[in-house]
Design a protein that fits this description.
The complex is a heterotrimer of chains A (about 350), B (about 375) and C (about 325). Chain A has about 350 residues and is of the alpha/beta class. Chain A is about 45% helix and about 5% strand. Chain A has 2 domains: about 300 residues, Rossmann fold (3-Layer(aba) Sandwich); about 35 residues, no CATH class. Chain A is built from 13 helices and 5 strands. In chain A, helix 2 packs parallel to helix 9 and helix 5 runs parallel beside helix 6. Chain B is about 20% helix and about 25% strand. Chain B has 7 helices and 17 strands. About 10% of the residues of chain B have low confidence. Chain C is about 35% helix and about 20% strand. Chain C contains 12 helices and 14 strands. In chain C, helix 7 links the parallel strand 6 and strand 7. In chain C, helix 8 crosses helix 12. The chains are: A alpha/beta (about 350), B alpha+beta (about 375), C alpha/beta (about 325). At the A-C interface, helix 5, helix 6 and helix 13 of A face helix 3, helix 4 and helix 5 of C.
Chain lengths: ~350, ~375, ~325
């Protein structure tokens, strides 16, 4: 427990509260998704980021609305932290027409271009190119926007990681690479898949500055990423920020987690739960009832999002056939006509499927 | 006997050759000396010419197949041998449920549009496929006399039956086609009932002729003078000869053997001829000499005990006489009711060539000959 | 109307579009300093600067991925693949990212990226530098695929591709670069994506094709004319979206069709076209649909081997002739 003398004050305190609020909202969202997924209301796969909230919160607190982020299959936290409303996210996971991707993306492909969220990506390391491109785009259009790539330790062994880090370094692009090193890819630990204890040394291989931070400490993440953002905006090029963190749940909901001990999970979360950590860091600067209020508001927000999702309709079946090409909703457009014929061929056989989980695991 | 196409021996050491490409396809007409196929050996490529003129009846092997020198790789059917009736030329061998007609989709559509019966069309595509170019222009049956056109084909029926009924026995196809055409012709009838007491008396006295023979004899004599009744629909003029067909029911179905030159034969000769023809018919041994080319026909259902038949003319004949069984019926003789042996006679005639009055005159004359057979002798 | 080379036509397209729209930029390997291995980028760095004409490291995945990212965020990148064969090094970026983002994000974004890919068989380049891969991308929903056949197509389709808001693959046959043709000298000349062009009219047989095979088909049509056979030649120009209407019209007119391309015949776009014809134009057919395409082998190096395994004018003419002579 921090004493009153070291408790943050002023802007730092406000920042701390904001970070805490974001992390609690993420926690509530993720626990809620877990519950509703297991309850059969969410089809497909879901990958929870419980334990990693500080990275999302600390990073995105530095970003403007018009800065871009690209995320991973474990992207709910990043999306919420960047500014997407819970309703749109939950409705998307519940496969509703009111989902932010109209029910066509789901958990792994959540995106919100209105806040610069370029999408969760179902391909590991799929975000590197998009972020390099977004950063390049800022340079082309002569703005001071930056682009942040969230990724996990597993992605750092893929080709695009190396190609894009190199490209961003050599072109001096305003990109920030935020690694959530949670120690496991799917079922393989970092110890098994790389010969280095810290991934950040790879950045040095590309001539890119790096930092290694405690990923459970939202302030630490905030400060490190903040420096990187400043550098990028000033034309100083890309930075690599490795956040040491941990995921409290399996790779996906339903993962039997045979690759680690339950004891390890419990120990890490007891020692390092980022929400508890921030609560501790704020100390007396955070009143107990304020803490409870933040939780209660988050739960209300989530409950409202669930009610919204549940009362929203499923997408119209003919929606399946449109949206791949611009102009394809315009009658007379040849692509539209082609897709309309396909729709007509398929609709008589299209079953009415209730929204719901079709099984977990992959 | 078809001519064989053999794999040629193109050199002293050649043992076999490979088919490079058949130039002609089965069903296609070929002339002697015309290239039939390309053959290749390890040394040369060579065009094999047709040994005869006719129709390529069969072609063995696909491109790339090898045959020994001297092996028969094809057959040329000589003129008259290859079955040129449309169904054989265009369809693969008949299966029990009817042969499959091979025609391109475009040809089928054009045939539908023109009312052409695909069965009547010879295909010149590969494997006898009917193609667009094979579909003839519309030939209206009522404008053009039914008969052979210059390509040796039956002209198209105006109404496309769309192929034969699936379970129609193949042997009925010619009748099916013919009746489809005839059914469209304007064929009225005149009918009379003749008193045949005198004929019966003559039959009993002589014992050397039957009803068919009598009808043939009477009709033949009358047709000399009533030439209109023996008009040939193909030419529009009377047949020169008086050959009379008699519809006969045989184990092989309806057959119409013909008594040639019946007007020159005596009643007894006609009877003997009928007997001879009947025997041949029963044995399925009637040939070209005995079938076809009649100028008039008679259908007699008397043997079945039926009083009346109104048959259809057999084109290109333009009239046909139907007679039933002679039976005892009430009659008026010299103003008083009596019982007489009566015969119902019907003359059906193609009104395009024969009017009602001449038809009636002929029938009346025939009826008169029944009452007074002496005019025939 | 000026006569210019295919190379010059693509260069004009780039110049015009980059002048017109400041968000258009170009990147690829060996572009800026070398001017492209076919000279197709000559002078661009001088006019537009090295920020808009960028040489990249040999990093196809990054190059295409960055192209997608830039396209998502307000630019119109033109990404040059050097050789179409190397798209394979960026397949995830093309297939899983570029093609899918608009649809799976519920139309929140556009991906107005153009991928230029010199392709095709020429000069004994060998199997890894000679492929025609457009079939893969037609089979991937979300992409547009265009294949110019001549200088006019080269300019008009490239401009259309750059202006299109959809991710567009532009396959330019390496052997076409020196070929000259008449090209309208007009900033607004654009060949619309998705519309075929009839190059030649004839009533006996139709040859439906695209890319370099169009020229070969026109040669074939001349050979056929000597035999009294009239051939219609359809230049598809775009292979996705396909101009199914133009194909159907050609079949309705001629009743006999050869579909030809340089890409491998098996599973090629000719197969899609032939199946469409069989399904939707059945009653117009007087003969089976014949497809020609490269043999199902990698492209060999030795000239005598290379020239043996893909269809050119004599083979196209032979197929058309045999169709007309009822040998199919």
């Amino acid at each position: 427990m921090a004493d009153t003398l070291t408790a943050p004050a002023g802007a730092r305190r406000e920042l701390g509260l904001a970070l805490l609020r974001t992390m609690i909202r993420i926690r509530v969202l993720e626990e809620g998704i877990e519950k509703h997924f297991l309850g059969g209301e969410i089809p497909g796969f879901a990958h929870l980021s419980i334990g990693q909230e500080a990275v999302a919160a600390g990073t995105c607190a530095n970003l403007r609305r018009d800065d871009a982020i690209a995320s991973t299959h474990r992207g709910h936290g990043h999306t919420l932290a960047k500014g997407t409303a819970m309703r749109g996210m939950v409705a998307e996971l519940f496969a509703r027409a009111t989902g932010i991707c109209k029910g066509k993306g789901g958990s792994m492909h959540i995106a919100d271009f209105s806040v610069g969220m370029l999408g969760a990506n179902g391909v590991v390391a799929g975000g590197f190119g998009l972020v390099a491109g977004a950063a390049l785009s800022a340079v082309q259009r002569k703005t001071d926007q930056v682009a942040v790539c969230f990724f996990g330790d597993g992605a750092t062994n893929r080709g695009p990681f190396h190609e894009n880090l190199n490209l961003c370094a050599v072109w001096n692009l305003p990109a920030i690479f935020v690694l959530e090193n949670n120690r496991y890819a799917s079922t393989t630990s970092t110890a098994e898949t790389m010969k280095i204890p810290d991934v950040a040394v790879r950045a040095a291989g590309y001539g890119m500055p790096s930092a290694i931070v405690d990923g459970f400490d939202a302030f630490a993440v905030y400060d490190a990423v903040g420096a990187a953002v400043e550098r990028a905006r000033a034309g100083g090029g890309p930075t690599f920020v490795e956040c040491k963190t941990y995921r409290a749940r399996g790779h996906y909901i339903g993962d039997p987690e045979r690759y680690r001990q339950k004891r390890e999970v419990a120990d890490v979360m007891t020692a390092s739960d980022p929400v508890v950590r921030m609560q501790g860091l704020l100390g007396d600067a955070l009143a107990a009832d304020e803490f409870e209020r933040i939780w209660a508001e988050a739960r209300e927000e989530f409950a409202d999002a669930v009610a919204f999702a549940r009362s929203s309709p499923a997408p119209q079946k003919d929606e399946a056939f449109f949206g791949a090409y611009t102009g394809d909703r315009v009658p007379g457009n040849p692509v539209h006509e082609f897709e309309a014929r396909e729709r007509d061929a398929f609709l008589p056989f299209a079953p009415d499927t209730a929204a719901g989980s079709q099984g977990s695991g992959h | 006997m078809p001519a064989s196409v053999v794999m040629p021996k193109l050199g002293l050491t050649m043992a076999s050759g490979t088919i490079a490409r058949w130039i002609k396809r089965p069903g296609e007409a070929v002339r002697a000396g015309e290239p039939l196929l390309e053959v290749s050996t390890d040394k040369i490529s060579y065009e094999v010419e047709s040994p005869a003129s006719g129709t390529l009846a069969s072609a063995r092997g696909n491109d790339g197949d090898e045959f020994a020198c001297g092996e028969v790789i094809g057959l040329i059917a000589l003129a008259g041998e290859y079955d040129v009736t449309p169904s054989a030329a265009t369809a693969p061998p008949a299966t029990s449920n009817g042969a499959r007609l091979v025609a391109s989709p475009a040809a089928r559509r054009l045939a539908r549009e023109r009312g052409v019966t695909l069965r009547d069309v010879r295909g010149t595509g590969p494997r006898g496929r009917i193609t667009l170019g094979d579909i003839p222009a519309l030939r209206q049956a009522q404008l053009c006399p039914p008969g052979q056109d210059d390509k040796g084909r039956q002209p198209a029926a105006i109404h496309d039956t769309g192929g034969y009924p699936a379970r129609l026995p193949a042997v009925r196809r010619p009748i099916y086609r013919k009746m489809t055409e005839v059914g469209l012709l304007p064929v009225p009838q005149v009918e009379t009932v003749a008193n045949v007491d005198a004929v019966r008396a003559l039959m009993a006295r002589r014992g050397d002729f039957g009803w068919s023979a009598f009808a043939v004899c009477a009709a033949a004599r009358l047709l000399r003078e009533h030439a209109e009744i023996r008009t040939d629909a193909t030419s529009g003029a009377p047949f020169e000869r008086i050959d009379i067909g008699i519809a006969a029911d045989t184990p092989h179905g309806l057959i119409v053997p013909v008594v040639r030159g019946a007007d020159a034969l005596s009643l007894a000769e006609i009877q003997r001829e009928i007997v001879r023809l009947a025997a041949l018919a029963r044995d399925g041994a009637l040939g070209a000499a005995e079938i076809g080319g009649a100028s008039f026909s008679i259908s007699n259902v008397g043997p079945q005990g039926v009083e009346r038949v109104a048959p259809l003319p057999d084109p290109p004949q333009t009239a046909i006489l139907g007679i039933g069984a002679a039976t005892q019926r009430p009659a008026v003789v010299d103003g008083a009711l009596a019982v007489a042996w009566m015969l119902t006679c019907v003359l059906a005639f193609d009104h395009r060539f024969i009017d009602g009055a001449p038809a009636a005159r002929f029938l009346a004359a025939f009826a008169h000959a029944c009452t007074d057979p002496g005019v025939l002798l | 109307m000026p006569t210019i080379s295919f190379t010059e036509a693509t260069l004009q397209a780039m110049q015009e579009e980059m002048r017109r729209d400041a968000t258009v930029f170009l990147m690829g390997e060996d572009i800026a300093k070398q001017g492209g291995i076919f000279g197709q980028f000559k002078g661009l760095p001088q006019e537009f600067g090295l920020e808009r004409v960028r040489d990249t490291p040999i990093s196809e995945a990054a190059l295409v991925g960055a192209g997608v990212g830039a396209a998502l965020t307000g630019c119109r990148p033109v990404v040059d693949m050097h050789f179409a064969d190397f798209i394979t090094c960026a397949m995830d970026e093309v297939v899983n990212q570029a093609a899918k983002l608009r649809y799976m994000f519920g139309e929140q974004c556009i991906v107005p990226m153009t991928l230029r890919a010199p392709d095709g068989i020429t000069k004994s380049a060998g199997s890894q530098h000679s492929q025609a891969l457009e079939g893969w991308f037609v089979h991937t929903p979300g992409l547009e695929v265009v294949v110019p056949a001549d200088a006019e197509d080269a300019k008009g389709l490239l401009k259309a591709a750059i202006r299109s808001d959809n991710p567009t693959l532009y396959f330019e046959h390496k052997a076409l670069f020196p070929q000259k043709g008449q090209v309208p000298d007009d900033d607004d000349f654009v060949v619309p994506i998705g519309k075929a062009k009839t190059m030649r009219d004839g009533n006996d047989v139709a040859i439906v094709t695209y890319g370099i095979t169009v020229g070969r088909a026109i040669e074939a049509a001349a050979l056929l004319e000597a035999d009294g056979i009239g051939a219609t030649v359809i230049n598809l120009r775009t292979v996705w979206p396909l101009d199914y209407g133009a194909i159907a019209d050609a079949v309705a007119r001629t009743h006999r069709v050869v579909v030809a391309h340089e890409a491998v015949r098996v599973g090629g776009i000719g197969a899609e076209i032939a199946a469409f014809i069989g399904e939707q134009c059945f009653d117009d057919l007087d003969a089976p649909v014949v497809r020609l395409g490269a043999a199902h082998v990698p492209v060999p190096f030795a000239p005598v081997l290379q020239e043996a395994m893909y269809p050119k004018a004599p083979m196209i003419a032979d197929a058309a002739r045999r169709l007309v002579r009822k040998q199919f």
